[in-house]
């Protein structure tokens, strides 16, 4: 969902370059060691963070890890930044950029986990290449994830879920976990689940939440 541009969010982002990389040049490497106090800590990346409820909650719960919220909309980036500043989340950075350049922004085999939460389903066939589980994106994820790193995917869209299962299977991943109704899984699974804004909204409405965890096979 596209957010209405808010001047305060734009101003906030521009005032905090230490916390937000606003549309960096993909031809220039980002020195993440200068943006985290300890870049040797495990790294988690969320693509399409929206208002940031999910990634901010994880960063608050896991100070032993580093997190990067990748979000194209500057208003959403501003909302995430506001949460980061209010909670003093020094282990959270925001990358306001297009995920198509993801492998240019991160060093190879650095991230332990990559989150795809309620991504745009791009339902029209001619837009297939824009889906975040299309083959070219999977190639980028494999490049930046460590050996054994995991992609965690959630959606309320049955069509996107079916497509993603097929796309990932064709690519050669293996699945640690697949659910067609996440919120009715075992208590242990639910206890580890952190809700996004959309997830809470859809679950309250009674919509099933589809989820999977996938790992790439070592070549």
UniProtKB/TrEMBL annotation:
State the species of origin. Answer: Lactobacillus xylocopicola
The keyword Kinase belongs to this UniProt entry's keyword annotation: no
Q: Which family does it belong to?
A: Belongs to the class I-like SAM-binding methyltransferase superfamily. TrmB family.
The catalysed reaction is: guanosine(46) in tRNA + S-adenosyl-L-methionine = N(7)-methylguanosine(46) in tRNA + S-adenosyl-L-homocysteine
What's this protein's function? Catalyzes the formation of N(7)-methylguanine at position 46 (m7G46) in tRNA.
Q: What is this protein called?
A: tRNA (guanine-N(7)-)-methyltransferase
Does the record carry Transport as a key word?
Answer: no
Keyword set, alphabetical order: Methyltransferase, S-adenosyl-L-methionine, Transferase, tRNA processing
* Region spans: Interaction with RNA: 126-131
EC number of the protein: 2.1.1.33
């Amino acid at each position: 969902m596209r957010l209405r541009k808010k001047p305060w969010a734009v101003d906030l982002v521009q005032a905090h370059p230490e916390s937000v990389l606003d549309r960096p040049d993909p031809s220039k490497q980002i020195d993440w060691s200068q943006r985290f106090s300890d870049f040797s800590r495990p790294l988690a990346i969320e693509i399409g963070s929206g208002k940031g409820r999910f990634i901010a909650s994880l960063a608050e719960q896991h100070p032993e890890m580093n997190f990067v919220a990748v979000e194209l909309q500057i208003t959403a980036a501003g909302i995430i930044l506001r949460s980061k500043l209010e909670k003093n989340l020094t282990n959270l950075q925001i990358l306001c950029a297009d995920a198509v350049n993801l492998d240019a922004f991160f060093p190879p085999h650095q991230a332990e986990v990559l989150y795809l939460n309620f991504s745009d389903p791009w339902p029209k066939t001619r837009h297939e290449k824009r889906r975040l589980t299309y083959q070219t994106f999977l190639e980028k994820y494999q490049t930046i994830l460590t050996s054994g790193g995991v992609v965690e995917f959630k959606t309320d869209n049955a069509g996107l879920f079916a497509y993603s299962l097929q796309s990932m299977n064709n690519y050669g991943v293996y699945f640690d976990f697949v659910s067609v109704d996440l919120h009715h899984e075992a208590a242990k699974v639910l206890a580890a689940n952190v809700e996004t804004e959309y997830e809470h909204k859809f679950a309250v409405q009674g919509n099933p939440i589809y989820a999977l965890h996938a790992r790439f096979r070592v070549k």
